[in-house]
Design goal:
The structure is a single chain. The protein is of the alpha/beta class. 38% of the residues lie in helices and 17% in strands. The protein is built from 10 helices and 13 strands. The strands form 4 sheets. A 7-stranded parallel sheet has the order 3-2-1-4-5-6-11, sandwiched between helices. Strands 7-10 form a two-stranded parallel sheet. Helix 5 links the parallel strand 5 and strand 6. Helix 4 runs parallel beside helix 5 and helix 8 crosses helix 10. The relative contact order is 0.14.
């Protein structure tokens, strides 16, 4: 079996590559390295091509004889900042990147009989009316990122219904873990490294999210590709909502410090108050969650200390 992973040098993409290699796939990765790194692809024999998903000829060349194409490419102008915030600052570039990429992939798949897996997002739901949110819930994105991903989903559905392309859609919730160089836990660790006694973060801390360890996310994308959910979205999460302030507390406990934690009370546009997944569809596949939130945070903290300069040393008890 052959797989093409677009964005495969990135955070989730590189973990997906690991899963595919363990399943004996020949893997080709295309990544422009705007946020990914070649250093994320040291797990085995992987063909790497630096390139842009908006280049149709490149996708045609790289997808030759592929059985499945995973589209995890996204708008990452730099390695710093939340992707939803970046998309809100430049929605046109976000839309061009997302939609040009998926249309190129679908056009190639239509001609080669490859299947396509789109890494979509829980941001398409906006602020859900109730939780846990199911795939049949009203789609009402409140961010440019959510809008562009939902449009990509619609193209997947169109190509399946009109051209018979086998498409799969995974709506990923808050994935975290090693190789994540942004977002809540990484930002918190960087700030703790600078000052063990005080930690200031955006938001209220009362926000509820569905935190899923990245290896569970990658396994979910693989099992989705083996399922019968053609053009039907599938939530990728744990089904458990956790308050941000509790996740931060667990992180601090893990590394053995007790800082004064302060939340700013404000955040970027498009940041919802509470969302976590109904994972009934996902659990009907062969996927099973392997990591608890506590286990995942421990593995993330271990990776941070090993890979990031000036690590936060564990077991440093810091009085308030």
């Amino acid at each position: 079996m052959r797989a093409l992973v677009l964005g495969g040098a990135g955070f989730i993409g590189s973990h997906l590559v690991e899963v595919l290699l363990s399943e004996a796939y020949d893997v080709t990765v295309v990544d422009d390295l705007s946020s990914g790194s070649r250093g994320n692809l040291t797990m085995g024999k992987v063909k790497f091509i630096k390139g842009d998903v908006k280049t149709l000829s490149l996708i045609e060349k790289c997808s030759k004889d592929c059985d499945v194409i995973f589209d995890l490419a996204a708008f990452h102008p730099n390695i710093v900042g939340h992707i939803m915030k970046q998309a809100s600052l430049d929605p046109a570039s976000d839309a061009v990147e997302t939609l040009s990429g998926i249309i190129n992939v679908l056009e190639v798949a239509r001609k080669t009989n490859s299947s396509v897996v789109l890494a979509s997002t829980a941001a398409i739901y906006g602020e859900p009316l109730r939780n846990p949110v199911s795939e049949s819930a009203i789609v009402a994105p409140v961010s440019a990122y959510g809008v562009s991903k939902y449009c990509a989903e619609l193209y997947c559905k169109l190509y399946h219904e009109q051209y018979g392309v086998k498409t799969f859609i995974g709506r990923i919730f808050n994935s975290y873990g090693p190789r994540m160089y942004k977002y809540l836990l990484f930002d918190a660790m960087c700030k703790i490294r600078q000052n063990h006694g005080r930690l200031k973060l955006l938001g209220s801390g009362e926000e509820v999210r569905d935190f899923i360890f990245v290896k569970d996310t990658a396994n979910a994308l693989y099992h989705l590709s083996q399922s019968d959910y053609f053009a039907e979205p599938v939530n990728i999460g744990t089904g458990i909502g956790a308050k941000v302030k509790e996740v931060v507390r667990l992180l601090c406990e893990t590394i053995g410090i007790e800082p004064d934690v302060e939340f700013s009370g404000t955040s970027w546009r498009g940041n919802v108050n509470a969302i976590f997944a109904d994972i009934g569809r996902l659990k009907s596949t062969e996927w099973r969650q392997q990591y608890t939130l506590k286990q995942g945070i421990e593995l993330f903290a271990l990776w941070f200390n090993q890979q990031v300069k000036q690590p936060v040393q564990p077991s440093l008890k810091q009085a308030k």
